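Minutes, project check-in
Item: structure for the 181-residue chain
Input as provided by the requester:
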Amino acid sequence: MIDRLRPGRSTADDIVVEVVGAESIGPDHLNSPGTHMLGKALSVAKSPTTTPNYQDGRLIGLHVDNWDKLSHARKHTGRRRLCINLGPGTRYILLGDVDIQNVCRTVREDHAACYPHTDDLRSYVARGFPLHCLRIRLDPGEGYIAPTEFLPHDGSTEDQQESTAAFWLGRWACGAMGSLV
């Protein structure tokens, strides 16, 4: 099963999801050119999703990030996000199985000229297209590197105690921080 989850030789690093341990992350990984710390976020206990809408406080659920403000044609080239679970609770990363470029091609006639957004994902689901999620457990000291501009995602503390996570954006080669999977 694990071999089926490994990226192929031609898979670009920009679209690979990796599960990593904090002990394998060194200062060079966090201070390399183009790497940017986004900050820390405390997630309350037992929350199905964790990302708030900062305007009204509601949780937004599965979404795509837009830090790099990329067009449809370039969305797959965005920086990946590193997240480390600082604890005390376990948390999860939820990942959608359809990337935002495919979502936009499905729901927008003008997809070539668009800047993909979470609203495109909402339209995709509202129209009845399938979106399955993978839930990956992250104990304290574990984390992920994921293309959050490209894949629908969110955090979760469902059935867990509160958890704090730290986030960075950057370009890391696959395997640069080891892998727990």
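Outcome recorded: The first strand starts at residue 18 and ends at 21.
No further action items on this chain.
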